[in-house]
Amino acid sequence: MHAPSKTSNEYFLFSAQVKEFSSFCNRRVQMSWQEAPLDKMLTAMADNDWKHVRNTISPIFSVHRLKRVELQMTQCCDRLLTALNNKAAIEDDIDVRAHMADYSLECIASTVFGQTLNCAAGTEHEFIGHAKAVLGVEAARPLRGLAAVAPTLARVLKRMLRVRYLPKETLNYFTGIIEDAKIVADDPKNQDFLKMMINAHRLDEEDEEEGIDWRRKSESSDLDRVPLSQALDTDEVLAQGLAFLFSGHSTVTDSLTCTLYLLATHADVQEKVVDELTIMTGNAAKVEYETLQELSYLQGVIDESLRLYSPTLRVERVCSKDTVINGLHIPSKTTIVIPIQAIHLDPDLWPDPQTFNPKRFSSEERAKRDPYCWQPFGMGPRSCIGVRLALMQMKMALVHVLSKFKVSPCAATVHPIIRDKVTGSPQDVFLRFQPRD
Ligand code: HEM
Questions:
Q1: Nearest C-alpha to atom 27 of ligand 1 is from which residue?
Q2: Relative to the CA of 249, which ligand 1 atom is closest?
Q3: Which of 57, 119, 345, 413 lies 20 to 30 angstroms, CA to CA, from 327?
Q4: Which of 123-132, 237-246, 271-280 has the lowest mean pLDDT?
């Protein structure tokens, strides 16, 4: 079956995200990132600086490297189950987002920073307070708000008041983690993404086997060749660790929360997921990375959930040189917006768009659609670098939770999900978790 030919909208997306990538490589720089080391985060970097870091760290998300963090992730799932078990024993209405936020933070702490939190134990690990500072829970919120409406004024005030988004003690804490990681970065039994980034400039045998050649040019034919010997410096490694925290925490939390809500409110779909799981895993205590890849119905459920509730509502690009797409002249410095959530709910692309229907993602249905109609992770060379990690985290959590619990609506469940108007995060999602015997 042939994929349908592109409409002018899809052709525009393809041009901006891939074909004319050299004109649309960069995002608008947020004022909050204009301080060291936040300005070195992949999300904030531009042009050749971005290309160097992106090229260097891309291989840490290869399959064999993801497998190196499989054990840590399984342990995070075990802690999530313990927390849900404890809560379900005393309460009917469980705050799903709070548990998914703990799980997502545990995953980042252990797979990226090598720290074990155990949120459910009640003792607050030092990492949690510093992570909250990074995520901006307590940090200079008013100034961030001002930046959205009056960026120049906010920038001047930030300089005058000497406001830092990242408190000094938090910066020192994370720098300390990196210095410690450098000492043991070569230990194959003790790997996390920080250590893999420290060594990211070195190829290993498995990279060769997986066909990773870091010297190749990307599909955009625009990424420059990066010398293999160029290691990231401490600030660059730290900045990427923080970028993973910023980009990976609420996205995974929100996606898991919405997927569990959809499964609770569609019992037939939930049972199909559990049936697939039983067939593929039997009674195996541990689910391997390869098995996760074979759960095609679960994959469709996640894809449909990401369509209905895209954690990233829109992405932006700043045009760096005059460019013409479809006869439309886009002057240099123009900001273009790719409205991910609106594309996902367009009735011309998705019949009955508000209905949850995982069958839309069967291989036959996928083949009928242009790939640019579904892009929760963006598209092209600047798309989400953590997509494989995100899907692994989500599948692992869902497999563990659904094999132990039947999830259903409870008295406190609100229909439909209410989302924060600015961030899109689901609010007050309460569900019941009944142990499966
Ligand atoms: C369901 C979970 C996730 C979703 C839906 C998601 C979505 C996105 C989107 C839409 C972008 C922007 C793409 C663009 O501008 O075209 C992005 C960028 C990014 N994401 Fe994710 N993300 C998720 C999880 C993660 C995780 C777990 C990580 C951790 C490694 C991560 C790291 C990043 C980074 C570093 C970027 C910036 C890439 C660059 O500028 O080169 N994301 N993500």
A1: 248
A2: 27
A3: 345
A4: 123-132
Is 9 buried (19+), middle (13-18) or exposed (0-12) by CB count in 10 A? Answer: middle
How far is C-alpha 307 from the geometric centre of its chain's CA atoms? 14
Q: What percent of the chain has pLDDT over 90?
A: 74
Residue 230 is classified by DSSP as -
Ligand 1 centre and the CA of 192: distance in Å? 18
- Closest residue (by CA) to atom 30 of ligand 1? 386
How many CB atoms are closer than 10 A to CB 72?
Answer: 18
From 105, 256, 384, give the residue whose CB has the most ligand 1 atoms within 8 Å, as the site to mutate.
384
Distance from C-alpha of 301 to C-alpha of 393, rounded to nearest angstrom? 15
d(CA 237, CA 425): 28
Please state the rounded mean pLDDT for residues 131-147: 70
> For residue 129, what are the CA distances in angstroms to 101, 146, 173, 331?
14, 25, 11, 44
Known binding residue 410? Answer is no
Q: What is the number of the ligand 1 atom nearest to the C-alpha of 315?
A: 15
Third-level CATH fold of 28-310+385-435: Cytochrome p450 (1.10.630)
Q: pTM of whole model > 0.90?
A: yes
3-state DSSP helix/strand/coil percent for the chain, to nearest 5?
55, 5, 40
Please give the DSSP secondary-structure letter assigned to residue 32.
G
Nearest ligand 1 atom to alpha carbon 54: 41
Give me ligand 1 centre to Cα 312, in Å: 9
Rounded-to-integer distance, Cα 26 and Cα 29, Å = 8
CA–centroid distance, 244 to ligand 1, in Å, is 8
In the block, residue with structure tokens 């999530």:
80
Q: Which helix (H) or strand (E) holds 262?
A: helix 234-265
Q: What is the pLDDT of residue 225?
A: 47
237 Cβ partners below 8 Å, 6+ apart?
178, 194, 197, 198
